[in-house]
Design brief:
The chain has 354 residues and is an alpha/beta fold. The protein contains 12 helices and 9 strands. The protein starts with a helix and ends in a 7-residue tail after the last helix.
């Protein structure tokens, strides 16, 4: 049962660190506020931008700009956004003369930002509160190169959304736990604060030209270990996104995401492979041996229940996911099947679909 032991080690030394971590509370005032550049790279996102921009303009923070780089949209973005931006001094709008893709667009946009801190999000995201910017900045110290935020999906009924919620919370728990152990390896670009000079230094858009996504993972991965990466998971700092509506769309999204993992540092690949493989193997062995000896199944369920109540559930609750043991077990079983299917895309199979 080496797989079960490996899972217990990860839960004790990683998940448990996050389960017991205390989040900072919001400041009532901003005596030492830091100016922030909010950056959005958008292509054909007109409806989303119309909904998002009022929420950003309503942020309760004294000094920030909103920089929108239009990656040669073919919708009506260029028709209405310049006039809308002219009404608000905080908004800056630029449009590329040809579609460049997100990596190249981000590389061009960075150098046109006014402020030392850069807060990234996407056009289809929605901040949970007007304190989003202030909370992300609050987590930054003088040593901070980046602040990892949390970006859950809007909860909807159905097994798919239950799985998406668990997968998102697991991913966040892992990258938060690794960061707390001074071993950061990724971040989510829907809610991520960078110090601009660190972003310019570590962002390498053309190092892996075959990879169309995962820029934020690889940038955080390049920043190395140490205290330079902070985390922020206060519910008011979350940025919500719209989940995929069907299984095929979700699987395609995950193929794109996991294809970046093989470009992580070797040490990160090893740790992540140990975690995910031990999770899969423990499920497979428990189910297989459980048919031979039901007591093995009963013992495994007992271990899972103890880990869930003491470590996993506190992590999930921090991230807005309050599942019963049965619902969590069901979601993790489906998640494990997904990991088995996605494994080839994390190792050698390329996934270049936009």
């Amino acid at each position: 049962m080496l797989a079960v032991f490996t899972q217990l080690v990860f839960l004790m030394f990683y998940f448990n660190v996050f389960a017991r971590h205390k989040s900072k509370s919001i400041r009532a005032e901003y005596p030492e506020f830091l100016p922030v550049s909010l950056l959005i790279i958008a292509r054909d996102e007109s409806p989303n931008l119309k909904e998002l921009l009022p929420l950003l303009l309503n942020q309760d923070y004294p000094a920030f700009e909103i920089f929108i780089l239009d990656d040669f949209s073919s919708d009506d973005t260029a028709e209405w956004l310049p006039g809308f931006a002219a009404q608000f001094p905080k908004i800056r709008y630029a449009r590329l003369n040809e579609a460049s893709g997100k990596k190249s667009s981000l590389d061009q946009a960075i150098h046109h930002l006014s402020h030392d801190f850069v807060l990234l999000t996407d056009a289809d995201c929605r901040p949970a509160s007007s304190n989003w910017i202030s909370l992300m900045v609050e987590a930054a110290s003088s040593e901070t190169e980046a602040v990892l935020g949390y970006s859950p999906y809007f909860q909807q009924p159905g097994w798919l959304n239950e799985l998406i919620g668990l997968e998102t919370a697991y991913t966040a728990t892992i990258y938060f736990s690794f960061a707390l152990n001074h071993h950061p390896y990724m971040g989510v670009g829907r809610n991520l604060l960078y110090r601009k000079q660190s972003l310019i230094k570590h962002f390498r858009p053309f190092r892996y030209p075959e990879v169309l996504s995962g820029d934020d993972d690889l940038t955080i991965n390049a920043m190395g270990n140490g205290p330079g990466i902070s985390i922020q998971y206060d519910p008011a700092s979350w940025v919500f996104s719209i989940p995929k509506k069907d299984w095929k769309a979700w699987i395609n999204q995950k193929k794109r995401h996991v294809s970046t993992a093989r470009y992580y540092k070797i040490s990160d690949q090893v740790l992540l492979m140990l975690f995910y493989s031990s999770l899969v193997i423990s499920w497979v062995l428990a189910l297989g041996l459980g048919f031979i000896n039901p007591w093995i199944w009963a013992g495994w369920i007992g271990i899972k229940a103890g880990c869930f109540n003491r470590i996993i559930r506190p992590c999930l609750i921090k991230l807005g996911l309050d599942l019963s043991f049965i619902k969590w077990l069901r979601a993790e079983a489906i998640y494990t099947l997904g990991l088995i299917y996605l494994f080839p895309f994390s190792t050698g199979k390329k996934w270049n679909k936009w």
